[in-house]
Amino acid sequence: MEKTVNVKVIPKAKFSQVLEDLEGNLQVRVTAPPVKGQANSELIKLLADYYKVSKSNIEIIRGLRERKKVIKIQS
Q: What is the enclosing helix (H) or strand (E) of 39?
């Protein structure tokens, strides 16, 4: 099964957290800074834990260098 999710990422947060709104959009706080893909790596790790899939099943398909991203999740 494949799912596409809109995600808003907040880098350099005090703690990591995944929040979901009623429409299924996610707001993800990551402690990593947006430097050299560190925030994206932490985002993928958090989403893998959140959806209980491996990190290789999560792909950023749009917004690699932006706060608003589109993520593809395969389960």
A: helix 38-51
Q: What is the CATH number of the domain that holds 22?
A: 3.30.1200.10
Give yes or no for a contact between 10 and 16, defined as CB atoms under 8 angstroms apart: no
Average pLDDT over every residue of 18-44: 95
The whole-number pLDDT of residue 1 equals 85
| Structural domain harbouring 49 | 2-74
Residues 56 and 5: their CA atoms lie apart, in Å, by 16
Q: Report the predicted TM-score, pTM, of the whole model to 2 decimal places.
A: 0.94
CB 71 within 8 A of CB 8: no
Q: Backbone phi, then psi, for 42, in 5-degree steps? A: -70, -35
- pLDDT score at 24: 84
